[in-house]
Amino acid sequence: MKAENKQLIVITHLSQLLDLVTGFGGLIVPLILWLVKRDTVIDMDEHGKSIVNFQISMILYALACIPLILLCGLGFLGIIGIGLLCIIFPIVNAIKVSNGEPPYYPLSIKFV
Questions:
Q1: φ and ψ at 72, to 5 degrees?
Q2: Confidence at residue 73, expressed as pLDDT on a 0 to 100 scale
Q3: SS3 call for 33
Q4: First vs last Cα of the chain: how many Å apart?
Q5: What is the 3-state secondary structure (H, E, C) of the chain?
Q6: What is the mean pLDDT of the chain?
């Protein structure tokens, strides 16, 4: 039986910010929370998929910026933009979840 736990979903969205503190964990912690709780918490499957898709997409975009840094320097702007997205949207979506709204992560490629 599934239970509603908005606090856990909010924590899952905010756990992406672990990248700022530890340098990693922004993908690993939400992935673990999603895999463990997706069958027991209402809406965790939807939110977990959107978080994992967003994190994987941002990693791929950052990797794509590396050659752009070497070629023309425009990759720095891409890295800065990706960094801002990775800070702003987890916070925005955590607020949305607490208000009962669905998450929205821009530029996400659907992998899962």
A1: -140, 0
A2: 82
A3: helix
A4: 23
A5: CCECCHHHHHHHHHHHHHHHHHCCCCCHHHHHHHHHHCCCECCHHHHHHHHHHHHHHHHHHHHHHHHHHHHCCCHHHHHHHHHHHHHHHHHHHHHHHHCCCCCCCCCCCCCC
A6: 94
What are the tokens at 99?
A: 């208000």
| Dist CA 3 CA 64 (whole Å) | 40
The CA distances from residue 25 to 19, 82, 94, 107, in Å, are 6, 17, 17, 21
The values of phi and psi at residue 5, to 5°, are -145, 80
| Those residues with Cβ within 8 angstroms of residue 55's Cβ, 6 or more apart along the chain or in another chain | 16, 26, 27, 30
* pLDDT tens-digit readout, 15-45: 999 988 887 889 999 999 999 999 999 999 9
Q: How far apart are CA 19 and CA 31, in angstroms?
A: 14
Q: How far apart are CA 31 and CA 13, in angstroms?
A: 11
Rg (CA), the chain: 15
